[in-house]
Amino acid sequence: MNRKPIFAANWKMNKGAVETEDFVKSFLSKIQGQNFAAEIVIAPPFIALPKLADLLHTATAVQNAHAIQIGAQNCSEYDSGAYTGEISVLMLREFFVHYVILGHSERRSIFGETDASINAKLKKAREANLKPIFCIGETLAEREGGKLESVLRTQVTEGLKDISEKDLAETVIAYEPVWAIGTGVTATSQQAQDAHAFVRSLIAELYGADAAGKIRIQYGGSVKPGNAAELMACPDIDGALIGGAALEPQSFLDIIRNGTVQAQ
Ligand code: PEP
Question: What is the dihedral of CA 238, 191, 152, 243, to 10 degrees?
Fold first, then answer.
C-alpha cells in the first residue's frame, strides 16, 4: 500500500510569532528546489498561528510556502461560548489550519484528557474538516506490566468510537510510547514496528483491511536525524511526530530527508 509519509513538528509551548518567522524563513530557504515525497506539518503554539498563516498563505507568502501544512496542538470539543481559554475548530480554520494534534500524552497526563474527551475533539475536528493527528501510546509501567496491547486497544477503540470510515481516512494515528517522548530514549525500530503493526491490525478489526492498509501511522518519541532512516524503513511506520528535534530547521529537515526517499 502506498502511503505518503507525514512529518509533523510539534513545537509544544515553544516559539512565539518572531521565532516562528525565523524558523519558517530558514526552513523554506533550505528546502528550496527540493521535492520531498512526504507531507510536512508545523504545529506551533496557537499564538503563532496567525504569523504562520501569514507566511504561508498570503499574497506575499515566501517561496516554497506550499510545501508546509499548518497544524494546531489541540482544539476545543465545543463550538463557541463560555469556555475560557479554549480555541474552537472554526477559529483554527480561519488560520488555514489543516491538521490538529489530539490526545498527546502531555494533554492526557498533565491536563486530564480522557479517551472520551479526545473522541469528542476528534469528532469536532472532523466536523470542521480538520485532519486529526490522533496520539496514542503506553507508559513504561504499562509496557513492563505486559499491558501494551490492552492500552493501545482501549485508546484506539474509545478514541475512534463512532468515527466513520470516511473520517478515519482523514485521520493520522501517531504511536508515541510515553517513555520515549522528550527523554532521548527511542523505541527500537523493532519495538516501534511491532506496535505499529498491532495498531494497524486493530484498525483492520474495526474498519476492515482496506482502511487499515490506507491509514498513516506516525512514530513519535525522540526521533532525530540519526535514527529517522531506520525507523522510517519499517513497513508500518509512515512518518514521524517530532518534538525537540523539530525546533531547529536543519534538524527537522534532516529528519525528513533521512526518513524519505527524495522525489526528483
Ligand atoms: C512529541 O512531543 O510528540 C514528541 C515526540 O517529542 P520528542 O520528539 O521531543 O520526543
Answer: -60
Q: Are 219 and 175 in contact (CB under 8 A)?
A: yes
For residue 177 and ligand 1, the question of a CB distance below 6 A is answered with: no
Q: Which CATH architecture has domain 6-259?
A: Alpha-Beta Barrel (3.20)
Question: Active-site residue among 39, 104, 113, 196?
Answer: 104
Q: Is the CB of 103 under 6 A from ligand 1?
A: no
pTM (2 decimals)?
0.96
Catalytic entry in 39, 113, 138, 176:
176
Note if 104 is an active site residue: yes
Stretches in the chain below the pLDDT threshold 70: 1, 59, 261-264
Closest CA to 136 of 119, 156, 163, 111: 156
Minimal-distance CA residue to ligand 1 atom 7: 243
E strand residue ranges, the chain: 6-10, 39-43, 68-72, 97-102, 131-136, 172-175, 216-220, 239-242
Q: Give the Å distances, CA to CA, from 162 to 148, 177, 228.
A: 23, 25, 34
Q: Tell me the DSSP string of 213-257.
A: HH-EEEEESS--HHHHHHHHTSTT--EEEESGGGSSHHHHHHHHH
Interval 61-84: pLDDT, tens? 777 778 899 999 999 999 999 999
101: cell is 494534534
Measure Cα distances from 184 to 165, 180, 181, 249 in Å.
Answer: 35, 7, 7, 19
81 CA from centroid of ligand 1 (Å): 32
For helices 115-127 and 148-159, angle between their N-to-C axes, nearest 10 degrees: 40
Which atom of ligand 1 is found nearest the CA of 246? 8
